[in-house]
Every structure is written in structure tokens, then in C-alpha cells.
Write a structure and sequence with these properties.
single chain; alpha/beta; TIM Barrel; 8-stranded mixed sheet; 30% helix; binds iron/sulfur cluster
Length: 225
Amino acid sequence: MQGRVFEIREFTLQDGPGVRTTVFFKGCPLRCAWCHNPEGQSFEVETLTKANGEKTVCGQDWSAEALAAELARNADIMAQSGGGITFSGGEPLAQADFLLELIPLLKARGLHLAVETSGYAPASDYEAVVSRLDFVYQDVKHQDAEAFQRWTGGDIGVVLRNIAWLRGSGVPFTFRVPVIPGVNDSAADRAAIAAFVGDDPVEYLPCNALAGAKYPLLGRTMRCR
Ligand code: SF4
């Protein structure tokens, strides 16, 4: 089968231990109002149009074998630094069947594998993929079900169920909390998130002021800033 990717970024340093290659999978079931990668939301191949009229195609299909070979190009450097590959997006778990083909090909090359996920995936997909990985960055966006629905379009119960499984899985993980003004940064929201996180590892990520820059390329505007 084929997987759809919209970017491969080499020598990343923020997406897990060591030097890494991060691969961004196209398509996400959520529509977070603050999304920094709106070109990763649609599962379709899209054309991005710059202000000067220049167009670029966003989205490329890969076989698992070809993508594994591409991602492993810097395998020696990654191994020396304790790095590896990070699956990002979009929502990588939305292409779980493809990941289940890709993961053994990368593992056979000795690569450390991580995922950045919203956790918005069927339990069977989440468990099948995550149990084969070395590390998980798991988003915590909101603790209020109504606000989660309003700001992401999703059912928080799906995420909470997967996080409960993750906590008992033995797979190392860190929570990532995007701190979005007017969405989840009130004292009550912060307290609810901190209580949920408890003693587990967590990174709080301030909203990027440049996050909205990609929306005009898609002929869209951001819902919040
Ligand atoms: S889960 Fe991530 S990729 Fe999907 S819409 Fe939200 S921020 Fe964007």
C-alpha cells in the first residue's frame, strides 16, 4: 500500500532524542483552530499558492520500501547521536496500516522510532502502532469535553481512552500541551491540564506567533491566533 506524506525534514532536533528525520503524514481527523500545519489536515493532495502566484504541490505518495530507504539516508548520523525517525503530521495514526508496514522496515535498519500524535485514532490503530514504537509525544489539548469539541472538532473520549492505555503500556512518553491564548490558557484550564498530567513528563509549547502564515497559501484564514 501507499502512504501520503507532505514533508520530510532532516536533522531535526526538537522531535525526540538525538538527530532525527521527521516525516509529516498528510491528513488529520481533527481541525484544531490553532493548527500550525494546516496543509497537513486534508488527506487530499493540494496545491499551495504563494502571494506571487507560485504554486507547489503538497502531498506525495510513497511505498513503504521507498519511504524507509529515504528516511534511512542519514542512519549513521542518527545512530551516533541516539536519534532516529519521528512520525508527525497531520495525524500519522490516521495512516496506521501504512505505518505498520513501514515500522518493521525502519526497525530492521536499527532506527529509534517516535510519534507525535493527537491520540485521535481508533483504539486498535493506536495500540498496534504505539506498541511498536520507542517513544511517544502525546498531545493534551484540553480537559473540557465541550471545549475540546469546539476547538478541535473531536470527541475527547477517544483521546482519553488512548492515553489511559498509553499510561499502562510501558512505552516511554511525554505529554505535549500547546498553550493557546483564549483556548486553554485560563487558570482553570491550566489547573485541569496540570491535574491530568500529574507526575508524568510534560512539555508546554507556547503558541507560535507565525503559526498563521501558511493559511493564506491554502486560501484559508486561521480561526484563532
Ligand atoms: S491534531 Fe495536529 S495536525 Fe491535526 S488539526 Fe490538530 S494541530 Fe493540526
